[in-house]
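Notebook, bench 3.
Goal today: get a predicted structure for Helix-turn-helix transcriptional regulator from Amycolatopsis dendrobii so we can plan the truncation constructs. The sequence was checked against the plasmid map this morning, with no discrepancies at the termini. Length recorded as 123 residues. Pasting the sequence as submitted so the record is complete.
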Amino acid sequence: MLGNPYDRECPTRQLLDRIGDQWTVLIVGALTDGPLRFTEIGKRVDGISQKVLTQTLRSLVRDGILIRTAYPVIPPKVEYELTQLGRNLAEPLDLLDRWARQNMDQVTAARAAYDAENAATAS
């Protein structure tokens, strides 16, 4: 099903919103090395609240990007891992991660120049 992501009602746009979310990018990245438990994901993704982590994991499972496996043990053990669809998504996200790391100095310089120019005009 092809759609028009520029139309706010298009399912394609909703999917782009999901995979473009900062937490989705970081969670998928955290799971590229294999399955993790909820608390392990929370430790790797610094700054995410438990509520947002729970919501994002549920959405990713619903979208078929993650698998949630609950083991019948005490204490309860639940792991999350990437599906094949999630592994496919991890590839372009890894490219974005590498781009950000390689270009961060240029972005920082551009921000500083912009801020300096706007500080001068605001005075």
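The longest strand covers residues 66-71. The domain at 11-122 is CATH 1.10.10.10 (Arc Repressor Mutant, subunit A).
Flagging this for group meeting.
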